């Protein structure tokens, strides 16, 4: 809890754009270009209202997680007019390596949402093949069961956290009875558990950072050269719609012991791939373009 | 309404009763659990001392994944509160997180009263006076404190006009 006024990062709403995905932020900036003549106060207010409008519009126009689409089919048109030809080269390379992708809603939750969706989908698919509970489902249930004590140990309030924990555990319990299509509907249900389980991933990530504050601190350096782990969690991990950086990714993969591959597509023409943790063989693979994550499928998936 | 939002609001209410924060009260309308009325008492040893400030909190089905809309019903003179009562506070906007319950929201707003952030003004006059003329600022605050007592009388049933 951080009442206003104890430092410049709180209270002020001028950092509102940080809440947004990269694309969201650019749209916001474009819409604010003509407001130079307004007072700072009016602009501030406009920013909040516009951000809320943009988030609402995105929610109407884009599903939380889209249908499977071919890589070049999905990306080629998007970059057709892009003067930096490196993107087209990169898309060709990705197209050879991956069979499909799913777009994830650009609301700042894309990493957590994409990661969780793909992990659960793989779990559902693997469980469908087997008559008894698969070891990975047993393992992840134990991890989530054990996470409750950790959440409370780092100071989260039980009455605020219980519901999220319960919903996540219930969703895992439902895995044996779900088909991939049923999971897709569940994770796209605006009034369902989707946003709750996505936010629970933020809580898990923050908990891992707090539990290992000494190890994470060097990556969380504040403006004053001091690492304030609690403040980082409060301002960069826990708030809904805040984009995630590598620190949160590392923390979440450690907490769940679920690795992830991230393919970075940029203008270089050579997508680079990073595995968290190094040396693992993840099922979950995500495509990163500056400011946004989508889900990738191997040619073997 | 999603049962998740209702469940959480009931938990928030239980927490307010079992572990009441000092200087704030809140309860939902009898007719609608999505709308709450709250009172924040001005913090002691500040110009706000003695004030009784009413607020309204409106929740959506997305609570607690989305912040409630919170505004002062009582007129307030404060650097971070707009003339219409809307509050400029990080946790109600871009720093919202479901870890904040109603008790935490109201406690934060109470702290904001005596600890404003003039760098992020919602009321430029209040912000200017707070920085440049604290004596006059305090006088204006005392005015709204006294006004808050009159507002209270206005809304008691006895003072309400006959239908």
Automatic annotation (TrEMBL), chain A:
SUPFAM superfamilies: Cysteine proteinases
Gene Ontology terms for molecular function: cysteine-type deubiquitinase activity; ubiquitin binding
InterPro entries, per the entry: OTU_dom, Papain-like_cys_pep_sf, Peptidase_C65_otubain, Peptidase_C65_otubain_sub1, Peptidase_C65_otubain_sub2
Pfam family, one: Peptidase_C65
BP GO annotations: protein K48-linked deubiquitination; proteolysis
Record-listed E.C. numbers: 3.4.19.12
Residue stretches making up the OTU domain: 99-299
Catalytic activity: Thiol-dependent hydrolysis of ester, thioester, amide, peptide and isopeptide bonds formed by the C-terminal Gly of ubiquitin (a 76-residue protein attached to proteins as an intracellular targeting signal)
Region (Disordered): 1-22
Domain of life: Eukaryota
Any Gene Ontology CC annotation: nucleus
Coiled-coil zones: none
Keyword rRNA processing: no
Keywords, alphabetical: Hydrolase, Protease, Thiol protease, Ubl conjugation pathway
Top EC group: hydrolase
Protein name, per record: ubiquitinyl hydrolase 1
Organism whose genome encodes this protein: Chrysophaeum taylorii
Automatic annotation (TrEMBL), chain B:
GO molecular function: ATP binding; transferase activity
Keyword Membrane: no
Pfam families, sorted: UQ_con
Sequence ranges assigned to domain UBC core in this UniProt record: 4-150
Listed name of the protein: UBC core domain-containing protein
Membership in a protein family: Belongs to the ubiquitin-conjugating enzyme family.
InterPro entries xrefs: Ub_conjugating_enzyme, UBC, UBQ-conjugating_AS, UBQ-conjugating_enzyme/RWD
KW ATP-binding (keyword) present: yes
Active site positions, chain numbering: 88
Alphabetical list of Gene3D superfamilies matching this protein: Ubiquitin Conjugating Enzyme
Keywords: ATP-binding, Nucleotide-binding, Transferase, Ubl conjugation pathway
């Amino acid at each position: 809890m951080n009442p206003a006024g104890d430092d410049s990062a709180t209270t002020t709403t001028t950092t509102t754009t940080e809440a947004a995905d990269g694309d969201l932020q650019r749209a916001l900036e474009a819409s604010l270009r003509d407001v130079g003549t307004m007072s700072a106060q009016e602009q501030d207010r406009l920013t909040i209202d516009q951000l809320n409008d943009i988030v609402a519009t995105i929610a109407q126009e884009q599903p939380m997680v889209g249908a499977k689409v071919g890589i070049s089919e999905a990306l080629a048109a998007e970059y057709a007019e892009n003067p930096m030809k490196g993107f087209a080269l990169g898309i060709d390379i990705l197209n050879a390596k991956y069979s499909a992708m799913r777009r994830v809603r650009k609301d700042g939750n894309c990493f957590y949402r994409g990661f969780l969706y793909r992990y659960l989908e793989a779990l559902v698919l693997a469980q469908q093949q087997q008559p008894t509970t698969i070891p990975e489902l047993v393992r992840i249930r134990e991890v989530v069961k054990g996470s409750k004590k950790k959440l409370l140990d780092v100071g989260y309030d039980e009455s605020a956290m219980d519901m999220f924990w319960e919903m996540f555990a219930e969703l895992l319990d439902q895995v044996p009875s779900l088909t991939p299509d049923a999971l897709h509907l569940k994770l796209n249900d605006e009034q369902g558990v989707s946003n709750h389980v996505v936010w629970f991933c933020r809580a898990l990530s923050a908990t891992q950072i707090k539990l290992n504050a000494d190890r994470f601190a060097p990556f969380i350096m504040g403006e004053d050269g001091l690492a304030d782990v609690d403040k980082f969690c409060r301002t960069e991990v826990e708030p809904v719609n805040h984009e995630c950086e590598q620190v949160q990714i590392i923390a979440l993969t450690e907490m769940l012991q679920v690795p992830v591959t991230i393919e970075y597509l940029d203008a270089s023409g050579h997508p680079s791939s990073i595995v968290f943790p190094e040396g693992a063989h993840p099922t979950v693979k995500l495509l990163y373009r500056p400011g946004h994550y989508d889900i990738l499928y191997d040619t073997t998936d | 309404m999603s049962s998740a939002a209702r469940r959480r609001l009931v938990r928030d209410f239980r927490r307010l009763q079992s572990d009441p924060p000092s200087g704030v009260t809140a309860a939902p309308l009898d007719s609608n659990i999505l709308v709450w009325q709250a009172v924040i008492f001005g913090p002691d040893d500040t110009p706000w001392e003695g004030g009784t400030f009413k607020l309204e909190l409106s929740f959506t089905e997305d609570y607690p994944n989305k912040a409630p809309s919170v505004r002062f019903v009582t007129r307030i003179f404060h650097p971070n509160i707009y003339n219409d009562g809307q509050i400029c506070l990080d946790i109600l906007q871009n720093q919202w997180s479901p870890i904040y319950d109603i008790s935490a929201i109201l406690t934060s707003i109470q702290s904001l009263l005596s600890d404003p952030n003039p760098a992020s003004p919602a009321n430029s006059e209040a912000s200017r006076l707070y920085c440049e003329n604290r004596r006059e600022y305090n006088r204006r605050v005392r005015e709204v404190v006294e006004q808050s007592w009159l507002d209270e009388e206005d809304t008691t049933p006895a003072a309400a006009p006959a239908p």
